[in-house]
Amino acid sequence: MEDTYALIREHKWKIIISFAVAAFFIFAITFIIGLNDVVDALEKASLELILLNFALEAAIILIWALRWKLILEVMDKSPKYTTVLTMLLASLFGNNVTPGSAGGEPLRAYILREVEGMPFEIGFASATSDRVFEFLPFVLISIIAALFVLSWELPPLTRIIVVIMIALTIIMFTIMIYAGLRREIAQRIIISIAKPIYPTFARFSKNNISFREVTEKLIFYVNRFSDGFVMSLQDRKVFIFGFFLSFAMWGIDMTRMYVCFSSLGTYPPFLPLVIIYTIGIFISFLPLLPGAWGIREATLIGLFAVIGISADIVMAASIIDRLASYIAPTIIGAVAALYYGRKVKNMASKTNGTNIKTG
User: Fold this and answer.
1) Is residue 213 part of a domain?
2) pTM as predicted
3) Has residue 119 been placed in a domain?
């Protein structure tokens, strides 16, 4: 992750194509449902409640930045709150343009290293710890969701797929925490992955680096990551506040989705909404398309049908939700990412100029 921006530029066509496929899925689903019905529902939506939806999403991001700042203060040192917030927004762009929301954490660590001088592994550990707190409410709710889904009258295949996705997410999350707490396990996993890949990379690399040197570097980074990871979870203040802030964010997010439906004059039962929306969030982490566009919407339509909400209303509510939770943060995050991209480039130019003068 020497240059995250270069990585995004290198794969820009894949990102554009994936968004095009997602747009096609959304259009196809809307067309099948009835484009006019969805448009009619959106035209009748309450502007005041749509604006409230944006305000609630802004509150979530502000709390998120506070949580990450608390983690950074324990692990190393934290920049001021506005800087942390801007970095978080840049990372949201990285998350939203990459399938499975996998680009945000490395981007946070990269910006922290280049701008604040924080070691990459510490920055990455802070972002991963932040992700751990983010998942805490969803893991608890997902267990309840799986039980409820099993009791609903759904097609057997749909029921199996949803439960499997929830189970796999919980398993991956558990493995991530276990690896963070047990560094020797993480070392073994990383080295076992690197071993078969090393010969291929060695052939294309200009530097003659032995696998032993690679192993030593990997162990060093894993140890630093594990130290920071454990420190953030063991600190009582961070754990209590992180846990509290995570549930506050989750509560606001659930309320926000209820507001999306309310803006259309529909008031779903809150408990089923929480369960269905939680499943939708888990689907968003699938490494298929950015934000799982189309796949998430199709799943929500099928699940909300169980509680009697028509497909056109679900699609309209999902569009209102996506405007606040996905489109707006992606646009603002892109501006933040470009700002830091230019800042890193200017800092590198000044450093090179100083080296030339002193040389």
Assistant:
1) no
2) 0.77
3) yes
